[in-house]
Amino acid sequence: MTTFLTALVIVVGIVGVLNLLLLFGVVRRLKEHDQAIANIPYGPLQSPPADSMRAPGSEVDEFTALSTDGVPVTKDSLTTETLVGFFSVSCAPCVEGAPKFAAHAAGVGKDAVLAIVIADEGEDPAEFVRVLGDSARVVVEGYEGPVTTAFGVTAFPTYGVVAAGRITASAIEFTALPVPTPA
User: Fold this and answer.
1) What is the mean pLDDT of residues 77-87?
2) Between the CA of residue 102 and those of 2, 36, 39, what are the distances in Å?
3) Would you say 110 and 137 are in contact if contact means Cβ atoms under 8 Å apart?
4) Low-confidence winner among 19-28, 32-41, 112-121 (lowest mean pLDDT)
5) What is the pLDDT averaged over residues 169-178?
6) Are 71 and 128 in a shared domain?
7) How far is CA 90 from CA 96, 118, 157, in A?
8) Complete edge-to-edge strand list for the sheet that includes strand 158-163
9) For position 181, what pLDDT does the model report?
């Protein structure tokens, strides 16, 4: 009887260990799929968020922020046509889109381009600031920051054109927007 109980305990132990190994494998596989899904940019088979920013014609709320080069940025400072881009440090399409946006905006003039980099505590916005800083005024803020809230941004990346405090165009692809003429 003792031999039978010992064998039964060994079998149950082996089944328990195999079950634990299977569970670790499933968790590892789920993490890989989660990472792969996060790296998929918006494609033709995916629908972009419908309202990533307030609709064209909407007025931007009052806000005050400071750019990374120490220049105050307010709604009133956006009097001329300005190309605006919102990027999140934790978003893969933002990482891919920031250099392309910077290249697109290079001919416009730094005063007519505003880039907002969203970084929460523990996230480092330095690479975005480096990439965007030559072609745009860059503001770094959190997800509930004053500029993001003033534009009603709900998805990243998102882009818009603003003039005289009013959004004149918005899109999730900056190539779809009119390019402000250099001042």
Assistant:
1) 91
2) 75, 26, 21
3) yes
4) 32-41
5) 84
6) yes
7) 11, 8, 11
8) 137-141, 113-118, 82-88, 158-163, 166-171
9) 73
Kind of pairing between the strands at 72-74 and 166-171: unpaired
How far apart CA 21 and CA 67 sit, in angstroms, is 51
Instruction: Determine the residue type at 181.
Output: T
Q: Which alpha helices (DSSP H) does the chain contain, by range? A: 2-38, 92-105, 126-132, 146-151
Structural domains of the chain, count: 2
Q: What is the chain's alpha carbon radius of gyration, rounded to the nearest angstrom?
A: 24
Cβ 80 vs Cβ 162: under 8 Å = no
Q: Answer yes or no: are the C-beta atoms of 135 and 110 closer than 8 Å.
A: yes
pTM of the model: 0.72
Ramachandran category for residue 165: left, alpha or beta (phi over 0 → left; psi -120 to 50 → alpha): left
Quick one: average pLDDT of 2-18?
92
Q: pLDDT tens, 88-104?
A: 999 889 999 999 999 98
Query: Same domain, yes or no, for 85 and 32?
Result: no
Domain containing residue 136: CATH number:
3.40.30.10
Range of the domain at 3: 1-40
Whether 50 is covered by a domain: the verdict is: no
74 domain residue, yes or no: yes
25 and 113 inside one domain:
no
pLDDT at 40: 62
